């Protein structure tokens, strides 16, 4: 404590010395006292604080020098590291990711060590109360990026002024004004030039205001569109939060198709591949795993697999943030129509200029060679006999005529009319709840002849629910767990609880809509306890789901059990069925799957598909040896059961499809789902006509869409 007092006393002495030496007026003296006491008090306070938390770094910077000027104002910035998170520095985390250094990671205690320093549990995440989040904001910042300042109206006025047509017109206006006043006197001579000035003024102000407003609107939109939901685990609960609310220490669940929302480290997961092309330009996917490459970067995209990551930097501390701050984005692009019209305008302008020049030359030549006569039939130009004043008047008249041609020829209002029309149609589209991110979209939409739409989530609500369940060849209803043989029920629990990317927290389900539907069905109707299943079993190998494979599998072993391993597959029913050689009947007995039975199951699947259900099948196999196997066995499985998931059509889709068709735009569905399910939904939405058998390529499988010639033609 004595050290502190000493420090304060010396500070006081320094200031009073200064005080004495300054020869100041009474008013300034007063200010000095104020400044002095402010500094003294804050110093005393801070040193006290320092004493208590000796590990914290406290620095004081005085922005303004203390000066006896009347306007003296003292700002004190306190940059302070929160005691709660004092074990680790942001700079070392940033450096770790920047260098992708495994050594450095090991020095920091690996991912586990960093979790501990960041006061995060790698299973249940941060505790997530407002105070905790506040500390993290204070210590590591927020997940927002510094944006270039929005352009002011003057920027747009300047842009409009730089247009060559406008410049030509301004010159013309000035000439016209000068000549007009010379010819007809200042009182009446300004009409022509003045009106050109007014026209130019109108064009500039209208286009500047319209561009300014559009720019502001796009800014607003980009704020909305960059606000994407991210799945985080906080306090053991998986939940969705906005990307801007992510803090350092958060545990984030990533799945295929997600954007990585901040920089961080891989904790656990399977077959995670990331598309880093937005950062490196490399189109190859980068494999991420715990040992060789656990580094994940903001702005990249998950191409395959799933994982949990620990956030280590957010916002401007990320690699992406650093990159963005050096690039200034310019969105002053023009739509194709605007570009073409601008070209047209400038060629017309050029022709106008050429013609005007020609007229000027011809008229001048005619005048000076004495080929022109005035109203009385007398030669206008008569060599040296003509008065200088008359010559000047005649030449001015000729130039004014040429200028008039230029002014008339330039269609300066044409591009402006297009801009205004596009802005207007954008406004109309927005009021119809269509988000327009680029002005050119309005134009493109106007000339579209085919709309290719996704099925799930676009035509349907993306809220799936299991509505049918077949075990063996029997349709089950309601809370069916009492009716299923216990051995089969256990296999169901394992197959669903382990072979999933979703999660259950109390009665909240997370994951993709398909996963959520299956999990909620298993918990509510099959009485599954996910925690218990996870506790009792070890997952040895995972094959993650992706839209190409249409299935996911796990290899697992029960803890404290014999040497038997279990393979579980789940996926598109027809594909899983093809992998099966046996099935469990409703009594829980395993039976062989002969051709007849297979046909029976095919019919069940088609029946469900015809009533627009997504069909998912579960299959299992017990294996004894798994030595050195890289892949999970895919044949000789036993079918456990089939479920049908209902995803209702969005209300209003049918009307929208009809409107499109009425307007001559054909609507096609691109899907990865079972063809029969897709057709049933297409019929429900009015894309397919129930009476017309031929498909006409209105429902297309994703793979086919990418590969076939016909679809290439549409995409042209
Ligand atoms: N989580 C999952 N686990 C296993 N199989 C799944 C899962 N989700 C979907 N499937 C199966 O994979 C198929 C393709 O699923 P995906 O989600 O890629 O469909 P999609 O191509 O997006 O279809 P849509 O046209 O409906 O949008 C589905 O028909 C379904 O049978
Ligand atoms: Ca004109």
Mean of residue pLDDT values: 81
**Oligomer type:** single chain
Largest sheet, strands/sense/barrel: 9 strands, mixed
What best-fitting shape do the alpha-carbon axes yield?
A: elongated
- Can you list the ligands bound to this structure? adenosine-5'-triphosphate, calcium ion
**Residue share in helices?**
40-55%
Number of helices, counting only DSSP H or I runs of 4 residues or more: 23
Strand content: 15-25%
Radius of gyration (CA) equals 38 Å
Report on this structure.
This protein is α+β, with helices and mostly antiparallel strands. Strands 11, 12, 15, 16, 17, 18, 19, 20 and 21 form a nine-stranded mixed beta sheet that branches. Strands 3, 4, 5, 6, 7, 8 and 9 form a seven-stranded antiparallel beta sheet that branches. Strand 16 and strand 17 form a beta hairpin. Helix 8 (164-226) runs parallel beside helix 13 (413-431). The longest helix has 63 residues, at 164-226. Residues 1-24 and 44-79 have low confidence and may be disordered. The site of adenosine-5'-triphosphate has 21 residues, from helix 16, strand 16, strand 17 and strand 20. Keywords: ATP-binding, Calcium, Calcium transport, Calmodulin-binding, Ion transport, Magnesium, Membrane, Nucleotide-binding, Transmembrane, Transmembrane helix, Transport. Its main location: membrane. It is found in: Membrane.
């Amino acid at each position: 404590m004595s050290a502190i007092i000493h420090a304060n006393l010396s500070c006081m002495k320094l200031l009073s010395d200064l005080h004495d030496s300054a020869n100041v007026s009474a008013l300034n003296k007063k200010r000095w006292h104020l400044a002095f006491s402010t500094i003294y008090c804050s110093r005393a306070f801070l040193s006290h604080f320092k004493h208590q938390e000796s590990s914290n770094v406290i620095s004081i910077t005085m922005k303004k020098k203390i000066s006896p000027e009347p306007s003296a104002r003292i700002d004190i910035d306190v940059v302070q590291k929160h005691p709660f998170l004092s074990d680790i520095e942001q700079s070392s985390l940033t450096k770790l990711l920047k260098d992708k250094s495994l050594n450095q990671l090991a020095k920091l205690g690996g991912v586990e060590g960093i979790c501990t320093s960041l006061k995060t549990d790698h299973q249940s995440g941060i505790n997530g109360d407002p105070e905790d989040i506040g500390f993290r904001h204070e210590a590591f910042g927020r997940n927002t990026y510094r944006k270039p300042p929005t352009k002011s109206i003057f920027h747009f006025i300047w842009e409009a002024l730089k247009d060559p047509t406008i410049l030509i017109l301004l010159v013309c206006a000035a000439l016209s004004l000068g000549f007009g006043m010379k010819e007809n006197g200042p009182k009446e001579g300004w009409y022509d030039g003045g009106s050109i000035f007014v026209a130019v003024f109108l064009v500039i102000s209208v286009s500047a205001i319209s561009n300014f407003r559009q720019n502001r609107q796009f800014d607003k939109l980009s704020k909305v569109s960059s606000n994407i939901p991210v799945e985080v685990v906080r306090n053991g609960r998986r939940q969705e939060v906005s990307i801007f609310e992510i803090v350092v220490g958060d545990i984030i669940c990533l799945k295929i198709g997600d954007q990585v929302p901040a920089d961080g480290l891989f904790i656990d997961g399977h077959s995670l591949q990331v598309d880093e092309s937005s950062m490196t330009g490399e189109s190859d996917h980068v494999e991420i795993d715990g040992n060789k490459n656990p580094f994940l970067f903001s702005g990249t995209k998950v191409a395959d697999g799933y994982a949990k990551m620990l956030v280590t930097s957010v916002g401007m501390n990320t690699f992406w943030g650093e990159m963005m701050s050096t690039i200034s984005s310019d969105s002053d692009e023009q739509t194709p129509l605007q570009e073409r019209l601008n070209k047209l305008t400038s060629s017309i302008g050029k022709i106008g200029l050429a013609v005007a020049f020609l007229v000027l030359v011809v008229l001048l030549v005619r005048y000076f060679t004495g080929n022109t006569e005035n109203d009385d039939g007398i030669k206008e130009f008569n060599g040296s006999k003509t008065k200088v004043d008359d010559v000047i008047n005649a030449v001015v008249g000729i130039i004014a005529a040429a200028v008039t041609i230029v002014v008339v020829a330039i269609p300066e209002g044409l591009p402006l009319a297009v801009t205004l029309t596009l802005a207007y149609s954008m406004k109309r589209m927005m009021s119809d709840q269509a988000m327009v991110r680029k002005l050119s979209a309005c134009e493109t939409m106007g000339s579209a002849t085919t709309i290719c739409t996704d099925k799930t989530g676009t035509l349907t609500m993306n809220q799936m629910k299991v509505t049918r369940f077949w075990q063996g060849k029997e349709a089950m209803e309601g809370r069916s767990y009492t009716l299923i043989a216990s051995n089969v029920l256990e296999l169901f629990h394992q197959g669903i609880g382990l072979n999933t990317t979703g999660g259950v927290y109390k009665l909240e389900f997370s994951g993709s809509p398909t996963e959520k539907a299956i999990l909620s069905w298993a918990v509510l109707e099959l009485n599954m306890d996910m925690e218990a299943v996870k506790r009792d079993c070890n997952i040895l190998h995972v094959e993650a789901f992706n839209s190409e494979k249409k299935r996911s599998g796990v290899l697992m072993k029960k803890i404290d059990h014999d040497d038997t391993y279990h393979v579980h597959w789940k996926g598109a029913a027809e594909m899983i069925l093809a992998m099966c050689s046996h099935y469990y009947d409703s009594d829980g007995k395993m039976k062989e799957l002969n051709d007849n039975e297979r046909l029976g199951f095919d019919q069940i699947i088609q029946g469900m598909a015809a009533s627009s259900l997504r069909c998912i099948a579960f299959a299992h196999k017990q294996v004894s040896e798994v030595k050195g196997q890289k892949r999970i066995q895919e044949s000789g499985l036993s079918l456990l059961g089939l479920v049908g998931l209902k995803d209702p059509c969005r209300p209003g889709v049918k009307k929208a499809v009809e409107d499109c068709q009425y307007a001559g735009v054909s609507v096609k569905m691109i899907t990865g789902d079972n063809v029969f399910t897709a057709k049933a939904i297409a019929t429900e939405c009015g894309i397919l006509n129930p009476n017309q058998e031929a498909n006409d390529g209105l429902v297309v499988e994703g793979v086919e869409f990418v590969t076939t010639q016909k679809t290439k033609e549409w995409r042209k």
